[in-house]
Amino acid sequence: MGVVEVSHLYKSYPLGGGQIDILKDINVDIQQGEFVSIMGPSGSGKSTLLYLMGGLDKPSQGSVKVKGKDLATMQDEEESKVRCRDIGFVFQFYNLIPNLTVEENIMLPILLDNKKEKDYRESLEEIVEIVGLKDRRKHTPRELSGGQQQRVAIARALINAPDIIMADEPIGNLDSKTGMEIMALLQRINQQQNKTIIQVTHSPDSATYGNRTIFLRDGEICSKLYKD
Q: DSSP per residue over 179-212, as a string?
């Protein structure tokens, strides 16, 4: 059983009295500890698939199971807990709170989950070390480079110790050198902590940091590439 299982997934949106089909009969099984890249041209359905796997959107047909639980059958509160505790999200534009420090941004999921911040101080210490921000912990986002801001976003995704990290174009807003540094960081997290990482990317170079690439075209899987 995969940590994320997608079965006969369809996604459509109403359009002018008809509908537009975004995803068509998608079947994907992702195992714990995999690093999977989803690639394809603009409009192929990459981000839609990621959002459906992360419970940020609802399928038109089919199912998404996370750790054996079907997201579609969950009540809103249970689904929110899965998103908060089992999945960490990283986005292209960081989504940091400007007036909070690095530490405060990282700890935000703990507060939103009504957990005690003091119980996670040790985890915070480990994570700022992992992402290389020990000397920036009291800074606010405006005092950081783009790469440092993305490191904060990755740290925030890790604080609840999720099994899965989902990243939507995590280096899309960065220069190539900084982007490869972020990819190397994600690769270390994948390999050293056995986190499952699923990323959407346009970059073939970015995809090489993982062990499998899924190619989408016109809402369908057109090929899968496994790394030796």
A: HHHHHHHHHHHHHHH--EEEEE-S-HHHHTTSSE
Report residue 136's pLDDT band, with 50, 70 and 90 as the boundaries: very high
Closest CA to 39 of 225, 211, 213, 226: 213
Q: pTM, whole model, 2 decimals?
A: 0.92
Buried-state track 127-145, b at ≥16 Cβ within 10 A, e below 16 = bbebbebeebbeebbeebe
Residue 223 makes CB contacts below 8 A (sequence gap 6+) with: 215
Closest alpha carbon to 46 in 36, 33, 32:
36
Closest CA to 7 of 47, 54, 64: 64
Helix (H) or strand (E) holding 140, with range, is none
Cα separation, 45 vs 210, whole angstroms: 20
Q: How many CA atoms lie within 13 A of 112 on its CB side?
A: 16
- CA dihedral sign, ordered 24, 21, 170, 53: negative
**Cα–Cα distance, 200 to 206 (Å, whole number):** 10
Residue 140 has pLDDT above 90, yes or no: yes
Of the candidates 43, 44, 67, the residue with the CA atom closest to the CA atom of residue 55: 67
